[in-house]
């Protein structure tokens, strides 16, 4: 069954609001029992926030109660309880106005979004270019898509329904195609002066060290929306989709299963002249299962990590009865969503060592408040509960395949993956990421992102000048304080047939890992002064066992060999 968007009043290329027409088409599709295609004739469609759907949603890793007590989301395109639905943009461009979650899929199955590009009329990451500098000032040219207000030497950035003054800043180097985090220059300035329209001079009581041509990116720090939110859904696909800006946390999958992203373009549209694509992470999967697959995609211009796949540790607050526990969300930005379902398997984990010492099954869940939950379990709780110990939902842990993607202009990490099931990271290019290209962590005291890995394959990737001595290219770093080589956190990690081009970075740092292989990799050091002189200098191991390092080639540095 085909439903055409223009039949519901949408007028492509008119600048008129498409929200009512899209809602009408979705409502019509919901009344059809067979598979439905919502067909959008090619053109440019605008979506305005004042007619968008408003609904409350708790989103993992977004904003705390103090940062944003209002959990209402402004939703451009809401698909709720939809099954066997395809939305085909036919190459159309969807322009969003104000702060919006562009797509929200709630309790859907077998839904595909394809052949569409999205962007914002005024992104919430402001951009400007440094033109010149002096002994106590520098000048910037503001990108024409952005507006500001200047009063008594203090500047506010102003957009469609939003404004901010302070917040995180990044510097983009267009020559090296890198983006790094920096201190906000506007927060350090004595005053800001308008030289002419969109030309600003910032004054300091010191000489600013800046480079002409650098592009500054500035935003506030509140993740009050997501780019795309997928919750309680299965069989979701995004195919040939360009998300050219995402406000808040990027694409979030939460307690969903079998999610596929294929031929995604997460980069700015060239014609806009912008350099920032996202407000935070690009793809963030929290508590999912089945398979998460990202392939043949470009991830460029983030303000945080490229891809992050993890679960959530909840802290054990108290044992209320033999089979009854009180648990709590601990990180300020993660709370309120359903963390367990009846029948889910859970592991008991020591906070200090991150080792598993028991398991159980959920019988029922009782909410106390958005942060605290009572679990009724099938079996008795272990007698030896430790202070600050945590539990992990191991039912909601996915397989992960990240294949043939390109990561660039990312200020932090390319991929974070902590899941017990099979992980394949293959055929990707990581270009000049400022921190680790791949991080495998797990922690029960900071972000509370679970858990241990048991089958990770990092094969046939190319790492170009990523990381540093502080941030190893490949970083296996569980945040356990108690180390015992006989009780590792992670196991079965294979790093094979990869190519590394490095300046000064540590290639591999691993901790509390067993059955670790680093084989048949090619390493080229292009800075003979700062870089490692041999492979042994480029690998650091702590409390690891069953390590196999063999068949690697090493060129450059002060020595060459295997």
Question: Please, could you describe this protein's structure?
Answer:
With 562 residues, the chain is mainly β. The longest helix has 12 residues, at 19-30. It contains two helices and 51 strands. Among the domains are: 2-119 and 225-304, Single-stranded right-handed beta-helix, Pectin lyase-like (Pectate Lyase C-like, 3 Solenoid), CATH 2.160.20; 126-218; 312-393, Thrombin, subunit H (Beta Barrel), CATH 2.40.10. 3% of the residues lie in helices and 49% in strands. The model has no long low-confidence stretch (mean pLDDT 96). The strands form six sheets. Strands 1, 2, 3, 6, 8, 20, 22, 25, 34, 37, 41, 44, 47 and 50 form a 14-stranded parallel β-sheet that branches.
Number of helices: 2
Distance between the termini: 61 Å
Uncertain runs with pLDDT below 50, 5 residues or more?
none
Q: Approximately what portion of the residues adopt beta-strand conformation? A: over 45%
Q: Give me the CATH architecture of the domain at 2-119 and 225-304, please.
A: 3 Solenoid
Please identify the top-level CATH class of the domain at 2-119 and 225-304. Mainly Beta
Helix content: under 10%
Strand element count: 51
**CATH topology grouping of the domain at 2-119 and 225-304:** Pectate Lyase C-like
CATH homologous superfamily classification of the domain at 2-119 and 225-304:
Single-stranded right-handed beta-helix, Pectin lyase-like
Structural class: mainly beta
User: Would you tell me the overall average pLDDT?
Assistant: 96
Tell me about the largest β-sheet. Answer: 14 strands, parallel
Q: How does the overall form come out from the CA principal axes?
A: globular
Radius of gyration using CA atoms only: 24 Å
